[in-house]
Automatic annotation (TrEMBL):
Transmembrane segments: none annotated. Residues 30-48 have a biased composition (Low complexity). This is Extracellular solute-binding protein. It comes from Candidatus Cohnella colombiensis. SUPFAM superfamilies: Periplasmic binding protein-like II (SSF53850). It is found in: Cell envelope. Its main location: other.
């Protein structure tokens, strides 16, 4: 009897041990950390099961982005049942103000949307988190290298990119063909300044009174776009940045004077409006839709969809189309090259940064921020906002993901966009913050106001060049500027 009891006890113990092992195995197989489809398995070798909340402040990135916030929060919680993602919406108008207010109060969100250029601003405030330790090599490899570098400063990875877009120009297909412009060849091979100048002169249409009904080219240069025209064209004029590789200020180069002469020349030709300095972003797009210009700038891939939607409104005759607009097929085009330089597109990289408040977050919380920031910037979420913006995703996981809605696209524009993106260059991470700050000061106090005066024909290209050169020598010394 005692022997039977000992055997029964032993068997019960074995059963309990086997049950415990089975339960542990089941928990491991069903946890997010063990799931091959879960981002967490790539971010960290061990994911804690402690409850945690990650906050994010995000603007309306695309048409339906904010409408999906609830679904995004639920999906994240399904991947990581112990974690909660709490998203606060912001408008484009108050996004920066909201973020700066929270940063100044010492209680920023864990994640915020910014333009990559703002990374250095928040790094200088010492509120950014380096995610290198919580992002695995597998996760980092999902992102295109050029876009990834835009959120790096030195060796630190302060965030992850959401997309890379190219600032281009765009033409009315019918007008381009009427002017005899081989726009497909331009999309594939680009064009020089002389070729561009000749092309837009052919796009000018005058009425019987000699007045211009249609310009060859219009670019927004007023308000928030006051520096865009010059900076975008400068990229392909041998001036890809304010500083060359030797950290000498580059706008003292003769290439800068050549660029200014070209910009003024297009207005003097009559191919651009004399009142160019007063044209803002809204007016330049209105001029494109109403047939007052053959080519417009700056352009983005999403402008194709904006034109398509307006065309649909015109066909529906419902009164919601832009007043006096015409049907227009938008053709994406690269900016011309100046001074015999190579084409370098102006890249727009936006994305998510990781922030800390007054109190340093735990290592576990930083890991969770890494999970959330990777979740927001890759896979199906990135696939859908990129799709709505007519952009090629910058992560393999997004390129492989299905989208909720297919949009009709011009195949030639897709190819052109891919060519322009392939020529994008990484962000400069070697420029010291003091030099960058001095360059921005010259931009604000000299370059932008002088450009407006140049466009208004109040000063000559030489006068603007001389003013910028004098300011640069004063800031950086005679040995700190390019002399050629």
């Amino acid at each position: 009897m005692k022997k039977s009891l000992r055997v029964s006890t032993l068997m019960l113990s074995v059963i309990m041990i086997l049950s415990l092992l089975s339960a542990c195995a089941g928990k491991a197989n069903n946890s997010p950390a063990a799931s091959s489809g879960s981002p967490s398995s790539s971010n960290s070798n061990s994911v804690s099961e402690n409850k945690d909340t990650i906050t994010a402040l995000l603007p309306p990135v695309s048409a339906n982005y904010q409408a999906r916030f609830t679904d995004m929060e639920k999906e994240f919680n399904q991947l990581y049942p112990h974690l909660t993602l709490k998203i606060e919406p912001a408008s484009w108008e108050d996004m920066t103000q909201k973020l700066d207010t929270q940063v100044n109060a010492g209680s920023p969100p864990d994640i915020a949307w910014v333009g990559a250029a703002s990374t250095s601003k928040y790094a200088a405030l010492d509120v950014l988190l380096d995610l290198n330790s919580v992002l695995s090599d597998e996760v980092k490899a999902d992102y295109d290298a050029v876009a990834m570098k835009y959120f790096q400063l030195g060796d630190a990875q302060y965030g992850l990119p959401a997309y890379l877009a190219i600032h281009s120009i765009g033409g009315n297909k019918q007008f381009l063909e009427d002017a005899g412009i081989d726009w497909r060849n331009v999309q594939q091979n680009g064009w020089t300044y002389d070729q561009f100048r000749d092309a837009i002169s052919k796009g000018v249409v005058k009425n019987d009174k000699g007045e211009t009904d249609r310009y060859g080219f219009v670019f927004a240069t007023s308000g928030v776009t006051s520096k865009d025209y010059l900076s975008i064209m400068a990229k392909s004029a041998g001036l890809p940045d304010y500083f060359d590789t030797n950290l000498k200020f580059s706008y003292t180069s003769k290439n800068f004077l050549g660029l200014l002469e070209g910009i003024r020349q297009l207005i003097d030709d009559g191919s651009m409006p004399k009142e160019l300095s007063s044209i803002d972003a809204g007016k330049r797009w209105n001029m494109f839709l109403t047939g007052q210009t053959m080519i417009t700038g700056k352009g983005l891939a999403s402008f194709e969809n904006s034109a398509r939607l307006n065309n649909a409104k015109i066909k529906a005759n419902d009164g919601s189309a832009v007043a006096n607009s015409i049907e227009a097929d938008y053709i994406a085009l690269p900016v011309p090259t100046f001074n015999g330089a190579q084409y370098i597109p102006t890249s727009v990289v936006d994305g998510y940064i990781a922030l800390r408040g007054k109190k340093a977050p735990s290592e576990e919380h930083i890991k969770n921020i890494g999970l959330a920031i990777n979740f927001l910037s890759s896979g199906s979420i990135a696939a859908n906002y990129s799709n709505e913006l007519f952009l090629t995703p910058i992560t393999k996981s997004a390129r492989d993901a299905a989208v909720l809605e297919e949009y009709p696209r011009n195949e030639d524009n897709i190819k052109a966009d891919q060519i322009m993106m392939s020529k994008a260059v990484p962000a400069r991470t070697d420029i010291p913050t003091d030099l960058a700050a001095a360059a921005i000061k010259i931009e604000t106090e000299v370059i932008v106001p002088k450009l407006q005066a140049l466009l208004a024909n109040e000063i000559t290209p030489q006068a603007m060049y001389d003013a910028v050169k004098a300011a640069a020598i004063k800031a950086f010394g005679a040995d700190g500027v390019v002399v050629d």
